[in-house]
Write a structure and sequence with these properties.
The protein is α/β, with parallel strands linked by helices.
Length: 498
Amino acid sequence: NLLCLPVIALFTLMAGCRPSVVRAAVMQGLYLLAPVLGRESDGPTCLGAAALALLAVNPMAIGGVGMQLSFACMAGLVLLLPGLLVWMERHLPMDKRLVRAGAANLACTLGATAFSTPLAAVYFGQVPLLSPLANLLTLFVVEAVFAAGYVICALGAVFPALGTAAGMLLAWPVRYCLAVYRAIASLPLASLPAHSVPAALWLVSLYALGGVWYVLRRRKKPLPLRVPVALAAAGLALVLAAGKLAIPRNGGVLTVLDVDQGACAVLASRNGTMVVDCGGSALASAGDRAADRLLSLGRTRVDMLVLTHLHADHANGAETLLYRTRVDRLILPGGADDADGLLQPILEAAAARGTQVEYLAEDADRRAGDLTAHLLLPQGSEENEQGIVVLAELCGKRAYLMGDAGQRAERSLLAEGLVPDGDILVAGHHGSKTASGALFLLAARPETAIVSVGYNSYGQPAEETMARLEKYCPSVLRTDRDGDVTIYLKAEERAHGG
């Protein structure tokens, strides 16, 4: 056992002494030392010693997400895994090798996620649902890859050519794991958005059910496990149904997401869904934010994804959205500038997911159920204005989604007679001083204006633009102050910041 300690120390140094690595090294070292010193191995004590070692060096490490997740996963394994394995021994045919391997895999997954799931919900806004499936399909491969990796490193140190060749072969199981993770992440119920109130309530009730089941079991009044499992499944079904009920009958909903400095809008009716732009500078990808919003509305597919142009703040989340959600049609402006290098990965994602790609060369109308999108290509001399303007119609309401169109583009639309009375305006170019001109606002007459904006060095939104919007629009909202802005489209729309 003592001979293993230098190897553990070397691995810790090679891995960069990250909190999760140090935690594993300290715990493994203590497990190995226990029999040498005539002591029993104790999981909670080893875990506490690892925490003490890390905090003694850097007390501020406790605020790190990596350390919190690492210790939460290990706490679940230490405290829950033995009981889970005992339960499985009693209720499953563990004499069968395949069943035993799958049961152990499932027990490890449940133990590791029991305490880490709330942290994932808080930090990443996700409640993973299919992680046991991902582990079941890949854990045995990951273990083999780690073991083979050590051998290849040693081989490469002596015979570099053989080490390189072996490393190329080892890349294939890694690719397999990545393919599995991506495929599972693209499934409709891979995760739930934690910021959804129904999903948050379901997560809290799930832990409450677990607590009740455990207390009754300790008091010798065991509740059959199928009861909390059935209640949890019924609660999940209600969460999914709640999203569809959020859309008014014979109406729809428009959400402008807070993606920091960027733009992403989700429109949904009872039988149609459209996303306009998908980019931003927020830590969470705009693609993830859009997919979460769609899932909270009970949607697992999108009829149309319209990218007004290919600047990063409008399109850098499109690839993620394409992988996470089924998109039937992707619409791009013809001859779109691709200075940010986003087009190729977006097209690859569209091809991988079977999404039809359309390049818009002239004004056109597209329908998604009872949602109509008038896709307009105004003439503009500036790069930002050479994109698509979307005029969406749903249940008698009109919404202008301007992309980065400025006043030159607005005047082009006015000259062509393409500016009917509207109800909602998602202001162009994040409230830039060159957008939302008085003539356009007088013609469009929106009741509600929304500025999608975040921290930036461009002076957006400009004071003069905000003054114009407040002069001509009864209600003006901003994502940097109001968060996600949702407008329910029905007989009388109402707006609120979220």
